[in-house]
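Issue 218. Parser rejects a valid record. Input:
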Amino acid sequence: MKNVLLLRTSSMGDLIHTWPALTDLARHRPELSVSWLAEEGFADIPGLHPLVSRTIPIAWRRWRKALFKAATWREIAALRHTLAATRWELVLDAQGLLKSAIPGRWANGPLAGYDRASIREPLASRFYERRYAVSRQLSAIERNRQLFGAAFGYRPEGAPVFGIRCGERLAWLPAGDYAVLLHATSRDSKLWPEAHWIELAQALQNQDLAIVIPWGSAAEQQRAQRLAAAIPGAVLAPKMNLREAAALLGHAAAVIGVDTGLTHLANALDVPLVAIYTDTDPALTGVVETARAANIGRAGEIPTVDAVLALLARVRGA
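Output the parser choked on:
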C-alpha cells in the first residue's frame, strides 16, 4: 500500500465535506492508504470513512492557549516525529490554511494544495510543492473533489457519495421510529425559534415519531432541556462523542437541523433530512440535496413550521 497524508483539521462540517472526495479516491486509486491529520476534538470523524486507516490528532486549538508551556512543545515535537516517520507518496492540504500547511511541511513527502488564487489563506500556498487551481465558486464538497482529482490524476464524476458507516443503534434510544432535532449551531443568528421547534415536535409526535434532542455545549444543553420540558415524552440525549452522534443520526427516521456540522453528518448518512437556514446561503453551505435531503430558507428568512413539515413529508416519502 502507498501512504497518503490528508490535512483537514477542522471544523466538523469541513471534515464531513471531505468524505465524498475520499470515496472518489477509493474508486480511482484503491492502492492508497490514507492517514488523516485532524484537530483532536474531531478525531472521531475521519475513521467513519472506510478508506481512512489512521487518524493523527493535532491540538492547535489547545496549543495556542499554552504556547509558553513545556508540555505543549513536547507534544508538538512528538507530532513532528510521527509525521516524519512515514514516507508519504503525497501530503495533501485540503484545508488551505497556515495551521494546516505548517504541519504539512513536517511530513516526509511532497506537499500539495490549492494555488494562490484558489485558497483561503494565499500565504499557505507558498508552502506547497504542487499547486492546483480550483474554482472558489464551487461548493465545498466539489472543491474537495476537484482538488483530489487534480492531485491524484483523475476526473471526479457523478453525484457526491459520502460512503460512511453509522454503527450500531444506541441502547438508550426509544423503541420504534424517532426524529432528531438538531437545534444547536455556532451563531445565534443561525438558530430557529424555540417555539417553532416545539410546534414541529408536537406535529411529529402526532405522526408516531418519538423525539430525540441532542446537545453538545452547556448552552446547548440548557436549550435542549427547555425544549424537552416543553415537549412531553421527548428524550433528552446524553452527552455523546461524534461516533455516537453518527449512530444516533444514522438510525433516525427523520432529522431536522439548522446550519451545523451534525446536519451535514446526517446528510452524509443519507437519512430523511430537512436543513433549515436563517442566516447563510444554502447554495454554498447547504446540504447536498437528494430525494432524501433538502434545504429550506436563506439569510434573513425564517422558514415556517408548516413549510418544514411539508418538505419533511416529501423527503420521508422518497
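Fixed in the parser; the record now loads. The radius of gyration is 20 Å.
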